[in-house]
Amino acid sequence: MNIEIDLDDPKPIFAQLIEQIKQAVANDKIAPNDPLPSIRQLANDLEVNSKTISKAYKLLERDAVIQSKGYRGTFVHPDAKANCQIDLKEWVTSQFEELITRLKEAGVTDSEMRLTFNDVLTNN
Prior knowledge:
- Pfam families: GntR.
- Keywords: DNA-binding, Transcription, Transcription regulation.
- This is GntR family transcriptional regulator.
- The chain has 124 residues and is mainly alpha-helical.
- The protein contains 6 helices and 3 strands; from the N terminus they run H-E-H-H-E-E-H-H-H.
- A hairpin with a 5-residue loop joins strand 2 and strand 3 (74-76).
- The model has no long low-confidence stretch (mean pLDDT 93).
């Protein structure tokens, strides 16, 4: 698997990494249970901050595209091919759009929504 980061791309580096790993899975360039480079190794290879790689790996793990096996390393999840087709951001956006439409129909102002959202987010 060859990962290339484009520093001129407006897309954040972690998003480029996620996209390329998902494409590699979808195109069978990496298979379930294949090992991935460590965070430190990939950060060194790509010459980016290890926190950027860590963020991408955490999001890929959340989406069950990769899995961490502790000290043994990080591997492609057995169900990665199916899971890499899921776009969580798209789903979250549609959920918010539906909720905001209902709230506006009920007469709730943008300010009230923002304040309430911040309160709920802070308290959960």
